[in-house]
Design brief:
Elements (H helix, E strand, L loop, with lengths): L2 H9 L7 E6 L5 H10 L3 E7 L2 H14 L4 E6 L11 E7 L8 H11 E12 L14 H10 L2 E12 L3 E10 L6
Parallel strand pairs: 1-2, 1-4, 2-3, 4-5
Antiparallel strand pairs: 5-7, 6-7
Helix pairs in contact: 1-2, 2-3
Bound molecules: S-adenosylmethionine.
């Protein structure tokens, strides 16, 4: 996958330029860079990862390609509560599958979103793990996890064939502005 593939997986879930987003498990920044392109100069991003080296590599790439986007780098574990401002959106790409207990993390993420805020999940479309992707979740499973954690309007955004584990999907869920289940 290249940068355009990453942008295309997120595009339909990002309502327009600007806004404050976080990328949890941002790593080297494949999807943070995509988010930077979609948010543009008015955007602000919190890139969170427990791997400081990955965030340093990301910072270099971001400075070279999207210097106008404000990015905060946080070395942290997303299983713990993070100190973040109310967010317009969160991206979790290939990072929730390291977590057996999805509800713990998704419950925390829900708490970071402002009403109407968005969570874009990018994952392999399977419930069968392996040593590299220990706890993946299919889109069908994600719909259940999202609903149980108070996220509404879950919809499939895009899919892409993957030689590894069949296919990758991106999905959007929204924290309701009012109670809508
Ligand atoms: C497979 S990489 C994905 C990186 C990037 N999101 C992408 O899709 O290219 C997973 C990343 O999640 C990070 N990660 C996994 N569990 C984490 C946790 N509990 N807290 C913070 N980062 C975590 C890893 O350090 C790694 O950088």
């Amino acid at each position: 996958m290249d940068h355009n593939d990453h942008v295309n997986l997120l595009r339909a879930g990002v309502p327009g330029a600007g806004g404050v987003w976080a990328d949890l498990g941002a790593g080297d920044g494949a999807f943070t860079l995509a988010l930077a392109e979609l948010l543009g100069p008015g955007g602000e991003i919190y890139a969170v990862d427990k791997d400081a080296g990955a965030l340093r590599r990301q910072e270099q790439a971001m400075r070279a390609r999207f210097p106008e986007v404000r990015v905060h780098y946080r070395v942290a574990d997303f299983r713990e509560r993070l100190d973040l401002p109310p967010l317009d959106g969160v991206v979790m790409a290939n990072s929730l599958h390291f977590q057996r207990d999805k509800d713990r993390v998704v419950g925390l993420v829900r708490g970071y979103l402002r009403p109407g805020g968005r969570l874009i999940l990018v994952e392999y479309d399977t419930d069968r793990g392996n040593p590299w992707v220990p706890y993946p979740l299919s889109y069908q499973t994600w719909r259940e996890v999202a609903r149980r954690n108070g996220l509404a309007r879950t919809a499939l955004l895009s899919t892409r064939r993957s030689r590894f584990l069949g296919r990758i999907y991106s999905a959007l869920s929204v924290l309701a502005e009012t109670e809508e289940g």
